[in-house]
Amino acid sequence: VLRSRRLIGLVLGLAVPLAMVFAEPTEAIYGFRIEGSAAQRELERRFDAQLSAASMAYRHASMSSAPNHVGSRHNRLNAESTLRNFREWGWKADIETFDVLYPTPERLELELIAPRHHRARLTEDPIAGGTAPADDTELLPAYLVFSADGDVTAPLVYVNYGLAEDYATLARLGISVRGKIVLARFGRGFRGLKPKLAHQQGAVGCILYSDPADDGYAAGDPYPNGGGRPASGVQRGSVLDLPVAAGDPLTPGVGSTRSAHRLPIEQATTVTKIPVLPISYGDARHFLAALGGPRAPESWRGGLPMTYHVGPGPARAHLLVKSRWAQQRLYNVIAELTGSEWPDQWIVRGNNRDAWVYGAWVALSGHSAMMEEAKAIAALVREGWRPRRTLVYASWDGEEAGLLGSTEWVETHASELQAKAALYVNTGANTRGFLEVSASPITARLVDEVASAVEDPQTRVSVRDRALAALQVRAFASGAGLVDIDQKSAALPIGDLGAGSDFTPFAQHIGIASIDLGFGGEEELIGVYHSAYDTYRHFERFGDPGHAYGVALAQTAGRLALRAANADVFPFEFATLADRVAEQVAGLHMLVQSMRERAITQRALVGRRAFQLAADPAKNLPFVPPEDPVPDLDLRPLDTAVERFAASARKYGSATVPASSDARDSVNERLQAFEQCMTHPDGLPGRPWYRHLLSVPGVSTGYEAATLPGIREAIEAGRWEEADVFVHRTSDTLKSCADRLDQATELLASGSLE
Amino acid sequence: VLRSRRLIGLVLGLAVPLAMVFAEPTEAIYGFRIEGSAAQRELERRFDAQLSAASMAYRHASMSSAPNHVGSRHNRLNAESTLRNFREWGWKADIETFDVLYPTPERLELELIAPRHHRARLTEDPIAGGTAPADDTELLPAYLVFSADGDVTAPLVYVNYGLAEDYATLARLGISVRGKIVLARFGRGFRGLKPKLAHQQGAVGCILYSDPADDGYAAGDPYPNGGGRPASGVQRGSVLDLPVAAGDPLTPGVGSTRSAHRLPIEQATTVTKIPVLPISYGDARHFLAALGGPRAPESWRGGLPMTYHVGPGPARAHLLVKSRWAQQRLYNVIAELTGSEWPDQWIVRGNNRDAWVYGAWVALSGHSAMMEEAKAIAALVREGWRPRRTLVYASWDGEEAGLLGSTEWVETHASELQAKAALYVNTGANTRGFLEVSASPITARLVDEVASAVEDPQTRVSVRDRALAALQVRAFASGAGLVDIDQKSAALPIGDLGAGSDFTPFAQHIGIASIDLGFGGEEELIGVYHSAYDTYRHFERFGDPGHAYGVALAQTAGRLALRAANADVFPFEFATLADRVAEQVAGLHMLVQSMRERAITQRALVGRRAFQLAADPAKNLPFVPPEDPVPDLDLRPLDTAVERFAASARKYGSATVPASSDARDSVNERLQAFEQCMTHPDGLPGRPWYRHLLSVPGVSTGYEAATLPGIREAIEAGRWEEADVFVHRTSDTLKSCADRLDQATELLASGSLE
Q1: Which range (A154-168, A449-463, A700-714, B292-306) has the least confidence?
Q2: C-alpha span between B253 and B553 (Å, rounded)
Q3: B613 to A459: CB separation less than 8 angstroms, yes or no
Q4: What is the dihedral of CA B208, B214, B220, B221, to 10 degrees?
Q5: Are A364 and A63 in contact (CB under 8 A)?
Q6: Which of A135, A268, A313, B393 has the fewest CB atoms within 10 Å of its CB?
Q7: From the CA of B231, how many Å to the nearest CA of chain A?
Q8: Interface contact A305-B212, CB threshold 8 A
Q9: Is the pLDDT reported for residue A9 higher than 50?
């Protein structure tokens, strides 16, 4: 039955101790008829039996034994061994290559030139015991890929995390970064936003450093005593403008095949406009200590033993970044098991294989789980089973540099994927702890049921119930009451899809329903993120000792793929989406209302000179101007559309899986591309590559999702006409989704009557 | 008129720009007839004209030029010069001495004995430039007065701020401090609570240190570059159990006169039970770095460049505290100007004169302002003016050790004070910034009007309007809307009286209406609090350059005294008190409700094993037991009493100052001791010395006020029968206050009819 189990879940899942819920279910699996459910569960048991922590660990150790950046020898070897594995196990597999713009650093320099001289070392020290960094000839210096070349000398300004709110704080202090080099700490927002915002503010260079308050000694003992970042550890990473577009900056929207039209580099909008370099806190402290000017605001203080000042000056720095801008080849490994019943309905599963250095945590931990799934599935096939739909497993290259491998593949095969792919399941770094899922809301019930079917390796309850227990205890600690807690934990909560991994081209560019999942929360601090200390030895001590959660990940992600591949009707559900959008629209109402009240209050306080009187006259702070009043914005079209979609979702929820296979086929046809109804061909303002209207990376956060982004970001920026356009566009979109859903419901009803 | 100006204030004070409000008022001063108001304002202008920043600075520099602890030579000299000043100016003045128990350190030792050896230095380094600490033979070592003697060796445990919630956190981690020495940082709660709680938890010793996150380099540049605490700076202070009783521990409740009965030291309940020593972060880091065990929770992290661990061990420490327990003499200087009309109605004004070392900030900054007031008032007297009521100015000794001088004086003269004193006005440390007031609510209107009449030296609006602007901007930053902001700033908000200065014996022991005030918020970090670096040179750079706010303080505190001394009818007002108590009672309803919901939620989560499932199994955390359910507590008697008092307050508010002087005399008689109706002779549970039923120091916070403490603290501790007793006692008390107020109102009405 497709009938909602929400209320039953509320009673079953919560009125009895969580541990008792983990028992053999006898109901139908969502999307399956009761007849097929037992067979599916039996299949999953056999799948589990094939998963081996030992073989996962072996493959993980081997793949993370040498530097794995794009273009490295070992990354290429890993592609070949991955291909070999797939083929040996019985998958149809190939390597698909793309040639992308890829700058490789040639000269990196940073020095303090006033009030004293200090040359940044820019190197990561060997760790006693010899675990890392290895004496590897292929080891690249720490850098940020897609930084512009540049050679600049200017006074320094400390800008905290370098986000929009930090520049607002600087403005209140009367400090400009125009013509300056900014020094920002990593964290809070996507690192690529930092040089972008710095450039927009007029800065000529950008230094990013890892403050010990964030992932160094303040957060936990530095490696090798603990998982924290050592004084010389540097966070590498991409500074591509990913919230504008992912993938090769020279081929936005199309695959970087040999014949693709490529932009001249000067027109590559997602490359930074100013040079940017990452440094350790061992280097950063010399620059921070040389700053004068006002004391940094309290929330700007880091963990170094000094008083943080903002500047500008007297510290002046010289920064040089020079790369070789050439084409580099990416190696995606793509494996397929053709579906027995619906070969043109695809379930795609992926994890990236490239890494900043060794990449044991990020992200070969997830890759090794994915390969274990592929091995187990192949074993089932050798025993005579076939998936009803086609399974595609992908080992992506170039994720770390900007989702390059997945994006070029998706752009190349966009039409076919839109016609065939129904679901993309993504993983990345995986460690000990609790299941965490971000996903298209239509997959919420699939996720909830799969999580109920996987046992947590430490507590022997389901990973769903363990995740819910953690959520409930957190909610309790924050002061929530039982009713709130129970409402929020009726099903495993899933987050909105933001950014940070290979689901982006699938979900947000071409509208394929996607799930991103992983375990975490009980690892020791990953203070070696994107550094040469991210090694297998570090991971097995601090990440997931014994790979127990690697196995749990394979069980979970594998079940998602297997159920989606075998279900009679795609296990999509629409009430969660309806609820989610209704909440988001309510949030927009509140946002506009609070912005309006804020502006009224702010203008009244300006009128009373309250800001002047509250300020310290000795600090000579700039005048606080009145904010613009907030005009009316009519959100009613959205309210109506949300109600309309909710009604359609309810109707669909009360239908049952039809007995007629023709009816099922027709329903599946309607549902395969359902997520695409939430996209718009024109995309979002200033970033047409992003076409999803409900959930994309926030332009001002980078990693976190912005929901209803066309409307929300226009409101936040005070672009009221644009907000109005997107209110109507989103409303129309929701209505057309409702139409499509009604068609599916009618087909279900007609099939059930046969 | 006594008619409430609340609504008018709302319109006048807020609908027009704040700066325009500061104009010559023509209305009657509250408590004055219109005829006398102009004369009073003229008097205050003449008073202002006598105040000199230069003479204040001269006296301040001189008094803070040598160590001023109890028993020091210079503190005695300061008493004598203060006496001389009062007498020269024309006050009737004397020194009144008390002999109190006063331990003086003989041997202080602290060493780390495992896993390595380190001997704590326990000394404050000289500062380049020679400002402090001086090479003064009288300089005492840094210590905590009223620490028990002891010589203990035990493993260390880091307990964060060492408050009740920190021990709850330790319990959740499964860590006990029984038999251990605890290492706690200064801050958050009164330092005396820390050894008390540590002892209650079974610890055998206690070390307190100043973490650089709180008042060292993290908060601001260390002295001499800025106002922050240098690495060797130590916070001295009292660890007397002040929330139980202030004053000489051998004479609780009676004055330490020569003939007083004294307890044997063993029976002195307010002395600590375990040895406790204060250290600098220069010393503390060696002990913290030697701790193992779990990583400290995130909110426990300080500013030292290391990972904070909780222990216990492997760090072991040896701690020795040995004092000479002898009697020491206190020198209070008490000066009087007898009232011309009502000599038996007293207005008392005080500030302490003793200090931990030099004490330029704490608290000779306030003392020098008070002396300037006394000088100016004496000048008015020489010009022929006399206060209508008696003014008593007091320079207290021994405040820093436990409010010794004021408490012994109040205890000695309790009957006379209860019969005569109508108001006590207290000050302490004073710096640049915004007026901050804690007071008995019946003084709210007096405070608001006085603050409206004093000009802020930097902005030229009233200190009231400047304080309100700061409050409004803070409220705006925290997200409040205009309506909220305007409601909260209809009058200058006053805090509840907690602890920390000499108002305690007046307000909380014998029920004299009290006001504690000072300026602050624009000083550079006072990281030299209670250290040898608290010098005049430090103060004049970072505290109140030019003593502009010293003058503002003298203007404000002096006006409070002068208006209270001259008013036709005591300028007390009762609507604020009624509102305040109504809010507090509403808070109690919410407290009980939220405790009940919390217990229900917690028990449900325990029943579901949620705490176990959410915990990391590798950490072996203890079982979380279910909390006790919250029984019914009938708060209705309190609701009724609050309504009754509010009605009486309204009636009083609509009366006018009577024309008949007999009627005024009768009203004044009823009002003089009004605050005493809020006390109960049995005092509070476990601390009978505290008799006020509405606002006293919290037993679990030490500094902060606990309102309706008999009820609130019983509820918080789950002592439900005691809570019920205090619900009835407080209700009866409020009703008898209402009766007394009704009598005053009737007298006003009868006098007005003449």
Answers
A1: A700-714
A2: 32
A3: yes
A4: 20
A5: yes
A6: A135
A7: 11
A8: yes
A9: no
- Distances from the Cα of B424 to the Cα of A396, A413, B464, B557, angstroms: 76, 83, 21, 11
> Which residue in chain A is spatially nearest to B216 when comparing CA positions?
A307
What are the pLDDT digits (tens) for B594-605?
Answer: 999 999 999 999
- Contacting residues of B for A226, CB less than 8 Å apart: 295, 307
> Among residues B105, B143, B138, which one has the least CA distance to residue B123?
B143
With a CB cutoff of 8 Å and minimum separation 6, the contacts of A330 are A70, A97, A98, A99, A100, A256, A397, A398, A404, A405, A408
Averaged pLDDT score across all residues of chain B: 94
Q: For testing the chain B interface, which of A308, A464, A613 should be mutated: the one with the most B CBs within 10 Å?
A: A613
Residue located via tokens 């050798």: A382
Between CA B442 and CA B573 the distance in angstroms is 5
pLDDT score at A1: 36
Q: What angle do CA A458, A461, A467 make, to 5 degrees?
A: 85
Triad B474, B476, B478: Cα angle to 5° = 70
Rounded-to-10 torsion of CA A159, A163, A164, A168:
-30
Which residues of A fall within a CB distance of 8 Å from B610?
18, 469, 472-473, 476
Q: What is the predicted ipTM?
A: 0.93
Percentage, residues of chain A above pLDDT 90: 90
Nearest CA in chain B to A463: B613
Query: Do the beta carbons of residue B371 and residue B328 sit within 8 Å?
Result: no
Q: With a CB-CB cutoff of 8 Å, which residues 287-346 of chain B face chain A?
A: 295, 301, 303-307
Structure tokens at B417: 């004070």
Chain centroid offset of residue A467 CA: 19
* Cβ contacts of B219 on chain A, cutoff 8 Å: 307
Question: Could you tell me if A584 and A578 are in contact, meaning their C-beta atoms sit under 8 angstroms apart?
Answer: no
Cα-based torsion angle of the residue sequence A72, A74, A75, A77 in order, rounded to the nearest 10 degrees:
130
Would the CB atoms of B613 and A482 count as touching at under 8 Å?
Answer: no
Query: Residues 220-259, chain A: which have Cβ within 8 Å of B?
Result: 220-222, 226, 228
Q: How far is B288 from chain A (nearest CA, A)?
A: 13
Interchain CB distance below 8 Å, B608 and A17: yes
Chain A residues whose CB is inside 8 A of the B19 CB are 608-609, 613
Among chain A residues, the shortest Cα distance to B13 is held by: A608
Taking CB atoms and an 8 Å limit, are B220 and A307 in contact across chains? yes
Q: Tokens at residue A178, please?
A: 């125009």
pLDDT at B752: 63
B121: nearest Cα among B108, B130, B137: B108
Q: CA–CA separation, B541 vs B519, rounded Å?
A: 16
Give the chain B residue nearest A604 (alpha carbons).
B482
Categorize the per-residue pLDDT at A384 as very low, low, confident or very high, splitting at 50, 70 and 90: very high
Mean pLDDT of B570-578: 97
Q: Which uninterrupted H or E stretch holds B152?
A: strand B150-158
Chain B residues with CB under 8 Å of A291 CB are none
Interface check A460 vs B, CB under 8 A: no
Evaluated on CA atoms A488, A491, A493, A494, the torsion sign reads: negative
**Cβ separation of B221 and A295 shorter than 8 Å?**
yes
Dist CA B393 CA B347 (whole Å): 9
The CA distances from residue A64 to A61, A78, A190, B502, in Å, are: 5, 9, 25, 68
